[in-house]
């Protein structure tokens, strides 16, 4: 079955960057979009962007344009989300998520990683 | 950007009772609407997609309805494991994909 395993918790200083990984197993990695969704403490879910590895081009929410970079390495079945210019408001759990439908980002998320807590604090 | 709203913010229900949750979109999303359940410390779990289709393994007590801008998630008889936060998500217009703020279902 499909599993998404994320990297561990991070503590970062304001103004720095963080890179979170998401390793997929089970199924074909390249054909399925990986999206990143974040959740601030006690808050709702916020889609940041997504990528279909075989196509290589990521799409981002306008809110994060210029600050987030989503990439995928087909050789290791791993997706990455890098967020720069971190501020305290970026403190959140970051999830990777994948649909069961191929070749589209515009869909629902059947599979989720376990989440990675990123804390931004001076 | 399509804005999703949910009501109520909190719903207090007794076990065995019916729960009705609402989700509204700021413009039509056709039937491209999903519902997720999230428990504390866990990732969301997909319940419903296409406004009314249950995801794999989801019990029949969960049902979804609606189209356009108005949607409903109904839990016919609440079990103890159903107390959680529920989010709707539209995937008709993007970017971005957008979620509602959630409805917390707690024990009355």
Q: What does this entry look like structurally?
A:
The complex is a heterodimer of chains A (122) and B (108). Chain A has 122 residues and is mostly beta strands. Chain A is 0% helix and 46% strand. Chain A has strands at 3-6, 10-12, 18-25, 34-39, 46-51, 58-60, 68-73, 78-83, 92-98, 111-112, 116-120. In chain A, the strands form two sheets. In chain A, strands 2, 4, 5, 6, 9, 10 and 11 form a seven-stranded mixed sheet that branches. A four-stranded antiparallel sheet of chain A has the order 1-3-8-7, with no helix packed on it. The termini of chain A are far apart. Chain B is mostly beta strands. Chain B is 0% helix and 49% strand. Chain B has strands spanning 4-7, 10-13, 19-25, 33-38, 45-49, 53-54, 62-67, 70-75, 85-90, 98-99, 103-107. The chains are: A mainly beta (122), B mainly beta (108). The interface between A and B is medium-sized, with 24 and 24 residues.
Which descriptors would you attach to this protein?
heterodimer; A: 122 residues; mainly beta; 4-stranded antiparallel β-sheet; 11 strands; B: 108 residues; 7-stranded mixed β-sheet; globular
């Amino acid at each position: 079955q499909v599993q998404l395993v994320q990297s561990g918790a991070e503590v970062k200083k304001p103004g720095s960057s963080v890179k979170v990984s998401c390793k997929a197993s089970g199924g074909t990695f390249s054909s399925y979009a990986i999206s990143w969704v974040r959740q601030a403490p006690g808050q709702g879910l916020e889609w940041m962007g997504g990528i279909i590895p075989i196509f290589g081009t990521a799409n981002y929410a306008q809110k994060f344009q210029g600050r987030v970079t989503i990439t995928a390495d087909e050789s290791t079945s791993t997706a990455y989300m890098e967020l720069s210019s971190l501020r305290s408001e970026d403190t959140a759990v970051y999830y990777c998520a994948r649909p069961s439908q191929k070749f589209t980002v515009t869909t629902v998320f059947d599979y989720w990683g376990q989440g990675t807590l990123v804390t931004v604090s001076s | 950007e399509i804005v999703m709203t949910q009501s109520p913010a909190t719903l207090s229900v007794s076990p065995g009772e019916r729960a009705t949750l609402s989700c509204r979109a700021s413009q039509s999303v056709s039937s491209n609407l999903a519902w997720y359940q999230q428990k504390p410390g866990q990732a969301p779990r997909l319940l419903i997609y296409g406004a009314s289709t249950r995801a794999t393994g989801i019990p029949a007590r969960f049902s979804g309805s609606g189209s356009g801008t108005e949607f409903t998630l109904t839990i016919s008889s609440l079990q103890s494991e159903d107390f959680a936060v529920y989010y709707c998500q539209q995937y008709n217009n993007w970017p971005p994909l957008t979620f509602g703020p959630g409805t917390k279902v707690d024990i009355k």
